[in-house]
């Protein structure tokens, strides 16, 4: 009995220490971002997408499992899945220094893997969802490592960035370490409502941040940015779920029209966006980190839904993102692209599949697609 009592006390102390350390980490680590002021909340209350202290989706969307979901979730998380990660580090095309020193006159995209990419358009360099660290988590021990050894352009070698566009505040899209390393190179930031609170906490001046609600437009010299709906959620800590808005984005120049889906489950918003702002010369569409067994949580698309969403927004060319960098859900790492290729072929959609780091010129897509993933 005495031994059991000692074991019980030791276990209680251990649990207490874990709770205390966890609480200190959540409250003191800058990774978790900022807290909204009363003025912020007042501003959010004018949004049609905000009520009772949270933002919400256009369609009813489950984002939090119930107690009755636990058996299914546990079964899914413990299910053996082969090829969750590549057999070896994925290839990366390193962008030569001379390639980025001079701003291209052509509209072009350089994919960094996952949902991060550099877009050059109308004499501007835009950096989209720049998660450029190795692990998408508040601490390296809490997440999976990147599938590549290096980036196409090292963070310290990035050129001047005219604007950063963010889709939402999840760790695989908004990265504290990256923001600190690039902030002296960045002119402006464009975010959904509330995400600017994190940026200000990390030292970005309020006047350099433009927060947009869904369907709001912002002019950036000759470019027009539109925050459009997505079907997802937000949050960086234990108690801030849906406290900031999530969005997809329209990026429109005088001659070209580009769409970025952000993170989104399939929904009617894609057709609404296509009807209002399409057709799009290029759509960067989420494809990956879904779960075929948990489709009741419609916060990511299956590859077949990615293809349908691309048709809905009236995309002329589709570049799949949100894959090939991290294992964030229970599917083989190349399942997204293999299924998307089949579906887009059936739908006669033009798909481009560049190697990470490959420079893709919008008016010259020849040699922009290879089945490079097959050997990994």
From TrEMBL:
Taxonomic path: Bacteria, Pseudomonadati, Bacteroidota, Cytophagia, Cytophagales
UniProt-listed InterPro entries: Metallo-B-lactamas, NAPE-PLD, RibonucZ/Hydroxyglut_hydro
Name of a matching Pfam family: Lactamase_B_2
Alphabetized UniProt keyword annotations: Hydrolase, Membrane, Transmembrane, Transmembrane helix
Domain Metallo-beta-lactamase as annotated: residue spans: 125-323
Gene3D superfamilies found in the cross-reference section: Ribonuclease Z/Hydroxyacylglutathione hydrolase-like
Residue stretches spanning the membrane: 6-28
Protein name: MBL fold metallo-hydrolase
Gene Ontology terms: cellular component: cytoplasm
Molecular functions (GO terms): N-acylphosphatidylethanolamine-specific phospholipase D activity; zinc ion binding
